Each structure stands twice: as structure tokens, then as C-alpha cells.
Amino acid sequence: MVDDDPTVAEVVVDYLRQAGFRTTHAADGPAALAAADEIAPDLVVLDLMLPEMDGLEVCRRLRARGPVPVVMLTALGEESDRIMGLELGADDYVTKPFSPRELVLRIQSVLRRAGTPPEPGPGMLRGDGIEVDVTAHRVTRNGSELSLTAREFDLLCFFLRHPGRVFSRDELMHEVWGWQFGDRSTVTVHVRRLREKVEDDPAVPRHLATVWGVGYRWDAGPGASADAASG
């Protein structure tokens, strides 16, 4: 838990511990990075407004070290920073003031998706050089392994399971991540990040197409398939 407000930190840490999490608090960016090196956390709750080093820089450095899930805390009116945080690899965000109980539920959701396949059942998903081992939570493209966040992995699996069908951003928020509400720009950011990793030219996507005024569609290439066991 990274936040320089001792009151917020105390409340959040207390809620997290009551929910069964082993929790460490850091009050600034350098302390957060040092703690991450020492304990290798399963998830980081990261405030954007920090002394010495802001949350965006902390997120950037965390993402450079590995795929640890990040839930960002943002203040009202910080939409541009929130979007930038998602672009840097944050898995979710909660806007201040927030309910500690909601934060705990968001954290539990991110951890479930970071550690388990988005849908039950083992199997492989394939499409034009992209191969997803759902059980191992591993993605390769033309033989090279890709580093995807939990949200990006969920999104890719969902599209590969439903090629050729158009989904609105609201449908993707609900069907992929189980959100009943949220900022639609979150979907836009994750789609853009996923394109950067699976497309030869993200500006002219061959697979993850935008259907203007409707949503997004995955266009399957040659050899696309999903093993029966993957659903």
C-alpha cells in the first residue's frame, strides 16, 4: 500500500488485513520500490500523488521490473493521469474518495484474474501466429513470449474465443472483467496496449479492429482455433 496520507493508509491497511492480506505500507515512491524489491508483492495499491517520486513514475519502474498487478488510487479530475497510468500497465484504478470495501473487492478481482485463467478449463487458443496457453497463463506471438498484464490477457482470451463478433466497450467491461460500471476509456486504453503487443502495425491493425460507433472485433487469421477444453 503506497500512500503518503497516514490516515488513508491506516484505514486501507486495516481493511486489507481484516480481509486476510499481509500488507506493507510505504509513504513515498523510493520506499515503495525498495519494499517491492524486498518482499516481491503479489499486488501494489499505488496513490498517484506522492512526494519525491509520483505514482506514474513508480508504476513505470514497477512495470519495468515485472508484471506485478497495480491498482491505482486517483483523485477526482485526474483523468489524464489515470489514463496514463493504465497505459503504463496499471490493472485497475479507484477514485478518491473511495470505499475501503470497494477497494478490497477490486484487489480481490485483480488477484483472481492475475493468478487464474479468465474462464475455467485448460486448453490452447490460437490465431495467426498468436498462441495462448490458458492454463499456464502464457502468450506467444510467432514463437516469442509476450508480457501481458492480467487485464490484457483476459481481453485477448475473450476475443480469441469470440472471433468475428463485435463487442461494445460496455459489453467488454461486463463480459471480460465483470464490471457493472466504470470508465469506458479503460477499455480503450487496454485495447490500444494489446494492439501494441499483438499487431505488426498497431496503427493499421489486422486482428483487433475498431468498428466505429459500435465497438471492437477480433478478425481471426489462418489457423485460428480454440481447443474444446478451453470452452
Task: Draw up the topology in text.
Blueprint: H1 6-18, H2 29-39, E1 44-47, H3 55-65, E2 70-75, H4 79-87, E3 92-96, H5 100-115, E4 124-127, E5 130-133, E6 138-141, E7 144-146, H6 150-161, E8 166-167, H7 169-177, H8 185-198, E9 208-211, E10 215-218, E11 225-226
Parallel strand pairs: 1-2, 2-3
Antiparallel strand pairs: 4-5, 4-11, 5-6, 6-7, 8-10, 9-10
Written overview of the protein:
- The chain is an alpha+beta fold and 231 residues long.
- It folds into 2 domains: 6-115, Rossmann fold, CATH 3.40.50; 124-230, Winged helix-like DNA-binding domain superfamily/Winged helix DNA-binding domain (Arc Repressor Mutant, subunit A, Orthogonal Bundle).
- Helices cover 41% and strands 18% of the residues.
- It is built from 8 helices and 11 strands.
- The protein has helices at residues 6-18, 29-39, 55-65, 79-87, 100-115, 150-161, 169-177, 185-198, and strands at 44-47, 70-75, 92-96, 124-127, 130-133, 138-141, 144-146, 166-167, 208-211, 215-218, 225-226.
- The strands form 3 sheets. It has a 5-stranded antiparallel beta sheet, covered by helices on one side. The protein has a 3-stranded parallel beta sheet with strand order 1-2-3, sandwiched between helices. Strands 8-10-9 form a 3-stranded antiparallel beta sheet.
- It is globular and about 50 Å long.
- It starts with 5 loop residues before the first helix and ends in a 5-residue tail after the last strand.
- Keywords: DNA-binding, Phosphoprotein, Transcription, Transcription regulation.
- The modification 4-aspartylphosphate is found at residue 47.
